[in-house]
Specification:
Layout lengths: L1 H33 L11 E6 L7 H9 L6 E7 L6 H11 L4 E6 L8 H9 L7 E5 L3 E2 L4 H6 L7 E5 L2 E5 L3 H23 L10 E5 H6 L12 H11 L3 E4 L4 E5 L4 H18 L1 H6 L5 H12 L4 H22 L6 H19 L3 E4 L2 E5 L5 E5 L1
Parallel strand pairs: 1-2, 1-4, 2-3, 6-9, 7-10
Antiparallel strand pairs: 4-8, 5-10, 6-8, 11-12, 12-13
Length: 378
């Protein structure tokens, strides 16, 4: 019984630390969104690379929003590995809507390494005509100043790479809502708190901008063709060149469209194991970001005397989420979804810590200690 009591006290203490973290995360989001978003001093020619696999919800709207930016000298290169990919028809429709736009589709099944997205990008590079690259995932919904904010930090010659934080805009189903909560009130605040604590290595794959010359100097996309955390690796390579990673002034929105809870779970376990492959110690330490789960476990082990701690954790977590929603201009979510999300996050965390395989686009890979992917099946 003494051991159980000690474990309960330890969990409650970790939950208390988590509450301090939660308050810090709310302040970090408010501060970030209050910063000015200055226009760029220069608008250099840009090539946007859109690696595609399937006609994801909103893809046509995302491409259309990109072409309506009013950005001078913009080239958009889309890429697929399968000529029968449904994304091909979407890209052709956009080409018909914008006949004057500089948009190109690369269809190439050639494989390069085990990272399918990077293999697609390697094939697309032959079509690039401009010196500044913006790599954008298919689910990115560009806001009005998206490209301006991608290029503005390069006014500082010490900046080698620009990355975007992102918020989730869910479809109406439960899995998508839970996925968006995980992004908006898990990933995004934790990235900002990490910056507060002096970590400048965060690089997030939804959108990355970097000079093509720097990419070539670092070995091209081929250098990360077998890496699961390709975004983090690109950032690390830029830092090894003595350059810094900048975060764009405002987050970009992602369309969150999870088919079901199992798909969401597999997706988030892949994210978790990606982070763990890069920095396992920090990933394990991130358990303190989950005070509701920690205090719930403390109450289950330690009994009713710890129920006030659980109630406090729920109240603080709800306040933090409302504060972040206001700062990010997001609609209010439900408390039931938030509590379900927090329990799911804990299960994902435990699962990600206890294995080294991931599911990605229907294929199963193992993740090595160096972050390299090995195809197991699919």
């Amino acid at each position: 019984m003494r051991l159980l009591g000690f474990i309960a006290e330890l969990l409650a203490l970790a939950g208390g630390v988590g509450l301090v973290y939660q308050v810090a995360s709310a302040l970090a989001v408010k501060q970030f969104m209050a910063r000015p978003a200055p226009p760029p001093k220069k608008r250099p020619p840009v090539t946007v690379l859109k690696p595609l696999c399937g006609a994801d919800p909103g893809l046509e709207a995302h491409l259309t929003a990109l072409l309506r930016q009013g950005y001078p000298e913009l080239q958009v290169v889309c890429g697929v590995s399968d000529p029968a990919d449904p994304a091909v028809a979407v890209v052709h429709r956009v080409m018909e809507q914008f006949p004057q736009a500089d948009i190109e589709l690369v269809v190439d099944p050639t494989q390069h390494g085990s990272n399918l997205k990077i293999g697609n990008l390697i094939n697309m590079m032959r079509a690039v005509r401009h010196g500044l690259l913006v790599i954008a995932d298919s689910d990115v919904a560009p806001h009005d100043f998206y490209l301006d904010q991608a290029v503005e930090p390069f006014a500082d010659p010490q900046i080698g790479l620009v990355t975007f934080l992102y918020v989730g805009r869910p479809l109406l189903d439960t899995a998508s809502r839970l996925g968006a909560i995980g992004i908006n009130h898990g990933f995004l605040p934790s990235a900002l708190v990490a910056r507060w604590l002096g970590r400048a290595d965060g690089c997030f794959g939804a959108t990355i901008a970097l000079p093509a010359a720097l990419l070539r100097k670092m070995g091209g996309f081929e250098a990360v063709a077998d890496k699961l955390a390709d975004d983090w690796e690109l950032g690390a390579m830029a830092r090894r060149e003595g350059l810094k990673i900048a975060i764009a002034a405002r987050p970009v929105a992602l369309t969150v469209a999870e088919r079901d809870l199992q798909t969401l779970f597999d997706h988030e376990v892949r994210w978790g194991r990606t982070i763990a492959a890069v920095d396992r110690a920090s990933y394990i330490a991130s358990i303190i970001t989950q005070p509701v789960a920690l205090t719930l476990l403390a109450a289950l082990i330690g009994g009713w005397r710890l129920l006030p701690m659980l109630a406090l954790a729920v109240a603080v977590r709800a306040w933090v989420v409302r504060t972040q929603e206001r700062a990010l201009r997001l609609p209010n979510g439900s408390l039931a979804d938030l509590l379900l999300r927090d329990l799911l996050s804990f299960v994902v965390f435990v699962t990600a810590c206890c294995g080294k395989t991931v599911l990605w686009r229907g294929k199963r890979f193992s993740v090595g200690s160096d972050g390299k992917l090995t195809l197991l099946e699919g």
